[in-house]
Amino acid sequence: MRAEGETSSPNGTSRPFSNGSGASPLHKAAISNSTNGRRKSPVATNGSAMNGHSGTKSRPPYFGHDREEVTRILIQGLTDMGYNGAAASLSQESGYELESPVVAAFRNAVLQGEWQEAEELLFDGSTEGVSMSGTGLSLQEGVDKNVMRFWLRQQKFLELLEKRETGTALMVLRLELTPLYQDTAKLHFLSSLLMCRTTEELKVKAEWDGAQGGSRHQLLSDLSKCISPAVMLPEHRLAVLLQQVKRNQISNCLYHNTATSPSLYQDHSCDRNNFPVRTYLELDKHTGEVWQVQFSHDGLRLASCGEDGQVIIYDMETFEVLQTLADHEAGVCSLAWSPDDSMIVTCSLDRRARLWNTETGKIKRVLDDFREPVSSCVWAPDGQTFVTGCLDKVRNLCQWNLNGELVYDWGRSHRVQDLAVSPNGHRLVAMDTENQLHIYNFVTRELEYELDLKAKTSSISISQNSRYLLVNKKDGQARMLDLDTREAVRFFQSADRGGLNVIRASFGGANESFVITGSEEGYIYIWHKENGLLIEKLEGHEKGCCTAVSWNPANPCMFASAGDDQKVRIWSNQEPRLKPSKAPRESNGSQRESNGW
Q1: Is residue 581 over pLDDT 90?
Q2: What distance in Å separates the CA atoms of residue 385 and residue 400, rounded to the nearest whole number?
Q3: How far is the C-alpha of 47 from the C-alpha of 210, rounded, in Å?
Q4: Model's pTM, two decimal places?
Q5: Measured over all CA atoms, what is the biggest interatomic distance in the chain, rounded to whole angstroms?
Q6: How far apart are CA 524 and CA 539, in angstroms?
Q7: Is 575 helix (H, G, I), strand (E, B) or coil?
């Protein structure tokens, strides 16, 4: 089908739990083993060895690793797993302690809401990155101490409001918070919380769960990231290191395509024979070029559409046709399953969009308010509305409800060629016919920013974690962009000569570990998402281009492809169910007919 024209919440009061910052056994042990912040310890606390350094004789490293670091991490890991006796025995035998009495006292002060004591322990005599006395804690280099003070006093302020001590909370805001912070909008927000009539209203507005919730543990977690790790070991350090090992092994395994976590017992490697590189079956129900394929969210059905104006829905267990949606008067260039797979929206060159019941195959609504072909469609994550894109300069970006009523018209003049909505519902991305991407806040419907890619674009899709945008360009290159930073993260270059047709690319495989796209010459390219390596170039569709690919979201060992040869191919790691015929490939020396637009 030829393309047309060819970290924290805004208010900062709710910081999500990170890395298990709740009341872990480690926290409980640190509090129970200290008395008023003091405990008997072989560790010196005169400022020269606050971080648990042992006074024992120097010992050789552990296979090149610092013995004290390894031991303290093991002590923490044993405590995290509930093996407190083993942790105590290891500490006693090694002479190393997890943390000093000063750190234990600071932890206790935060968790018990002793805010003045917490500040004194944190800052007494310390400068950025250097501890000048035995009663202060060494901070990370470059840390803004006023930000840390603000976090502590903000928690104090919120807890006073929770107890309905509004007068005292007001004094904290005026005398303790305001002198620290230059962000007037943030201070205005905090002052607005004084007007909350109930504790529940306060918690909802501040996105905060109260003193008895997880807020103190989260505060401690945030503060600990600013303290030198030699003084206060980062949370769950052993688990983090092990996860990094697994991620590294997965990123170095070209064919890793399973959601199962690798074993720590041995180095990880996957066999190519378990990767979907074989044509398992050919589906030939279309009578024209096939322009798009898309699996249902549960992976049990596959829908395809194209030049013949039909949308065909297949059962993925039997590969039989379940429904044929044939009301279109021209080619169908795009389709989208509803989040619960009960409906499909189709977009046609006949200047209409249609809403279908996928169980009965009957039309629910026809939208005919367009003067040009309807190019694309996406669903809102709640399944109550959908958005259409059109190649006209009016009604080119519209949101509709299930009754076919217009909910919102963005009123922009760009002609929309493709659309994508982030799974978390925060962003809507529209790709126009002039190299531009338009990124909208899907909640407020306001334009966040625009990007000019300086090249003709073909399709867009968004990763399941809502962070990355995949843009397929007509020069044979796919580009992965970070939606938050707006920066290009990685490029995926094929050997395709490019052309005028719409070629769809997408993320796929287990944990979306791969990027897959078709090509003008009929090949299918698969790259490793993390390192950008091309791992497969498959002969996909022999007579014309491979226009679209879709990876089964429920089965990482299956994807589908569509092409100008009127075929839908199912790819698997299993032996072929039906051997495809091997006809000689046509010469690609001349420009082919376009695929629809």
Answers
A1: no
A2: 5
A3: 35
A4: 0.72
A5: 86
A6: 6
A7: coil
